[in-house]
Write a structure and sequence with these properties.
By secondary structure, the protein is mostly beta strands. About 15% of the residues lie in helices and about 40% in strands. It has a domain at about 30-75: SH3 type barrels. The model has no long low-confidence stretch (mean pLDDT about 90).
Length: about 80
């Protein structure tokens, strides 16, 4: 007789790793490149974040408040 299969568990909606990762980027002042939903990219360091947006600090250019729903992805430089 075949062994019973375990019911697969549904993946968690949230892992709560995002705040830890953003805090590390802020603490280490890691430069990032952020790809936006309109196709443009911006670079700088993350200075602040909350549940809706991040603040990106840039050299020689204005700082930006970027809504998280406008971010496609970001990568460390």
């Amino acid at each position: 007789m075949p062994a019973e299969k375990k019911a697969k568990q549904k993946p968690k909606e949230q892992t709560f790793e995002e705040p830890k990762y953003l805090r590390r980027l802020i603490d280490q002042q890691t430069p990032v490149c952020i790809k936006l939903s309109d196709g443009s990219s911006v670079s700088g360091t993350i200075e602040y974040y909350d549940s809706s947006f991040i603040r990106l600090t840039r050299e020689g250019e204005p700082n930006l408040f970027i809504f998280k729903h406008d971010i496609v992805y970001f990568s460390e430089l």
